[in-house]
Amino acid sequence: MSTRSPKLSHYALGTILACFLVNLLVRTVFKVGGPFATLLAAALVAAGLALVFRWRTGRRPYPVERRVLVALYALGLGLLYAGLLALMYLKEEPGLPGQLLFAAHYLAYPLLAWIALAPERNGE
């Protein structure tokens, strides 16, 4: 267990990298697609983030750490998603339903990370 403050940017970068790897596995090796693949990948990555944080620090994140970690993760992943959206616009402008579906796919990742990093209800 470490008494030092964890480097939240390292956790966020590792989690973004995990998104790529888990999505690659889910979508190519296991041949899962669509929204279910996104939810599965986001849930696995969020659970992994929570487990690694707890394993390395010996505790759940403090509320401020949770906010900063999810914000960094959402920002980094959001920049990548913005780049992907720009590439989609270069090919063909997606309609409103496509944009909403794209946003839902993105929002699943920070939302599930927020839930996975939540404090325990029994007062921990």
Description:
77% of the residues lie in helices and 0% in strands. The protein has 124 residues and is mostly helical. The longest helix is centred in the middle third of the chain and has 29 residues, at 63-91. The chain has one domain. The chain is built from 4 helices and no strands. Helix 1 (8-29) packs antiparallel against helix 2, helix 1 (8-29) crosses helix 3 and helix 2 (34-57) packs parallel to helix 4 (96-116).
Keywords:
124 residues, mainly alpha, 77% helix, globular, membrane, transmembrane helix, transmembrane
Number of domains: 1
**Strand elements, count:** 0
Broad structural category: mainly alpha
Percent of residues in helices comes to: over 70%
How many DSSP helices?
A: 4
Distance between the termini: 17 Å
- Radius of gyration over C-alpha positions, nearest whole angstrom: 16 Å
β-strand amount: under 5%
Order of helices and strands: HHHH
Largest sheet: none
Low-confidence stretches: none
Shape estimate: globular
Q: What is the overall pLDDT average?
A: 93
Spell out the blueprint of helices and strands:
Blueprint: H1 8-29, H2 34-57, H3 63-91, H4 96-116
Helix pairs in contact: 1-2, 1-3, 2-4, 3-4
